[in-house]
Write a structure and sequence with these properties.
This protein is an alpha/beta fold and 422 residues long. It is built from 14 helices and 24 strands. The protein has a four-stranded mixed sheet with strand order 22-23-1-24. A four-stranded mixed sheet has the order 2-15-17-16, with helices on one face. Strands 4-5-3-14 form a four-stranded mixed sheet. Helix 4 runs parallel beside helix 6. The chain binds uridine-diphosphate-N-acetylglucosamine (UD1).
């Protein structure tokens, strides 16, 4: 298995281009199943999760062609000839469950394996199921598979989510575009990826209002047509690379970044003493002198601080002046990076969903293991400022969500290399 070796190399400077959002692309791709006309996505990220979704859609009969080195995905779901999303593909990635709503809406039936994905918590699907059932679907769990059917077609309904789940909002939103009548989603997720999905669906002819707020109203239509849609900027990749100069010092401009995508995160960076400026090309981040100040962080649904940046923020706070408290409110088991950061000299106490980070003067390089997608990149960030060599193993987690990590960080002066495993 490949490893990444990072050696603390002082301040960073230059530019990092930010890719299209993995999480947006993973919900935009299944939207192809809603129409028999082509859907083309531009600004797609080059990631193994996108390959997994391509494999899944292809297994259902969709055609997915990757063009321009993977940045354009041309999809057609003219002939959907299989309605079973198999465990062997779904177990690799939880977002595979996003084919359920579109297949049910288009075909009237779907069989979808319960998903796998990052081992960061239980991550059930009850909210997806309740939402689709409220629209008239009948769903049963048999042998690890959800068997869903809507014999009389899906019907509009008012659905109030008990928690603003991103995936459940996306699945039900897609299904509702082809349902009969009006669907109202209350306590819907407000993430930029939901707005991006709604924008794409509107360009396919869907009637949707209120995305980006907690109440989304969808007026069902008979059919959706083809469209071309650019994937929104990846706010998690953006936040991750904004942390590189914050941790190592220096000044880096993240191209394509926008404050509106990461405001709550930027608030915390500024409290920690990092300078952030919006430019015409993106977000410029500078850490000039002095130690980072300790800050407390609580993860919340958007527009709150994103859980997907908690591990990376922890890497920054490991060397802050003082004690920071990080509360994880979205996933119950998302501190697996803490023991690895401790191997690098960090001082972190984890009690349930709370991590208390006592800032130390300096981290030291060590062999560490990536345990999930965001944890893996937090170890690389920590390595940028550590003394000596940090060797990160199990980097396949990283490949799920970050394209060209080595190239992007090398480009701003980091000392980083990937060693091919056997
Ligand atoms: C999405 C993102 C993921 C991010 C997360 C929260 C994608 C592909 N993934 O994941 O990177 O960390 O949003 O911002 O977009 N829950 C239930 N029942 C359900 C669904 C969810 O209890 O039916 C719980 C989950 O266990 C979790 C919480 O709700 O504790 C958040 O999950 P959700 O918002 O659904 O996240 P995902 O869509 O899985």
């Amino acid at each position: 298995m490949d490893q990444i070796i990072v050696t603390g190399n002082g301040e960073l400077s230059g530019e990092i281009p930010i890719a299209g959002a993995k999480n947006a692309c993973l919900t935009l791709m299944p939207a192809t199943l809603l129409s028999d006309e082509p859907l083309t996505l531009t600004n797609a990220p080059r990631l193994s999760d996108i390959k997994t979704m391509t494999e899944l859609l292809s297994s259902l009969g969709a055609e997915v062609t990757s063009l321009q080195d993977g940045q354009v995905l041309a999809m057609s779901s003219h002939d959907i000839n299989n309605h079973v999303a198999d465990y062997d593909i779904v177990r690799k990635m939880r977002a595979s469950n996003l084919v359920l709503g579109p297949m049910l809406a288009r075909l009237g039936h779907a069989v979808v394996s319960l998903p796998g994905g990052c081992a960061i918590g239980a991550r059930p699907m009850d909210l997806h199921i309740h939402g689709l059932e409220a629209m008239g679907a009948e769903i049963e769990l048999k042998d690890g598979y959800l068997h869903a059917k809507a014999p009389g077609g899906l019907k509009g309904a008012t659905i109030e989510f008990s928690f603003a789940s991103v995936g459940a909002t996306e699945n039900v939103l897609m299904a509702a575009t082809l349902a009969k009548g009006t669907t109202v989603l209350k306590n819907a997720a407000r993430e930029p990826e939901i707005v991006d999905l709604a924008t794409c669906l509107r360009s396919m002819g869907a009637q949707i209002e209120g995305d980006g707020t907690s109440t989304i109203t969808i007026q069902g239509v008979d059919r959706l047509h083809g469209a071309t849609h650019p994937v929104v900027t990846d706010r998690i990749e953006l936040g991750t690379y904004m942390l590189a100069p914050a941790i190592a010092g220096g000044e880096v401009e993240c191209l394509g970044g926008k404050l509106s995508l990461v405001q709550s995160f930027v608030d915390k960076l500024e409290q920690a003493g990092v300078e952030v400026t919006e430019t015409e090309r993106g977000l410029k981040v500078a850490r000039r002198n002095g130690r980072i100040k300790a800050v407390d962080v609580t993860t919340e649904p958007f527009p709150g601080f994103p859980t997907d940046l908690q591990a990376q923020m922890m890497a920054l706070l490991c060397t802050a002046d003082g004690t920071s408290v990080l509360e994880e409110k979205i996933f119950e088991n998302r501190f697996m990076h803490a023991p690895e950061l401790t191997r690098m000299g960090a001082s972190i106490d984890v009690q349930g969903g709370t991590a208390t980070v006592h800032g130390v003067d300096q981290l030291k390089g060590a062999p560490v293991m990536a345990t999930d997608l965001r944890a893996s990149v937090s170890l690389i960030l920590a390595g940028l400022a550590a003394e000596g060599e940090t060797m990160v193993s199990r980097v396949y987690h990283l490949d799920r969500g970050y394209e060209h990590v080595v190239r992007k960080l090398e480009g701003v002066g980091a000392k980083i290399e990937r060693i091919k495993g056997s």
